[in-house]
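Sequence only, no structure available. Ideas?
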Amino acid sequence: MEKTFTFDYAHHDSLKNLHAADRELVAAARAACATAYAPISHFRVGTAARLASGHIVTASNQESSASPAGVCAERALLYHHQANHLHDPIEAIAIASDPDTSEVYPCGICRQVLADTEERQGRPIRVVMSGRDSATVVGSSYDLLPFRFKL
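Reply:
I predicted one. Tokens follow.
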């Protein structure tokens, strides 16, 4: 049996076209890039999540000489959220990078952890993937990983 998977997304050629709340989240993610530890790749990634309470939490990637012991910004944020804000669900997450010449997208492991978090909290997580001048937005992390592991 043949099946088709489709999903909706929004692409913004200018960050000015994002909703104000998403622009604020992208700005927080960009600021979080400054806390990244990336002596190997020199690719700093920051994330910011808006929780249901309106609180914004941030994180950044952390590399290690004992590669692959480092952790992506998205997972650093999601694990921090699980440990410290469990009962305050994530509504949206923004991802930014430095350098920011193109939009930055979550790796496969981060896509799975995003889907796990979304399933656990029982509500979608909007994902805003930004670059210097543009952003792509999906309404659910499930859109990024249609064939995900399910616990």
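The domain at 9-142 is CATH 3.40.140.10 (Cytidine Deaminase; domain 2).
Hope that gets you unstuck.
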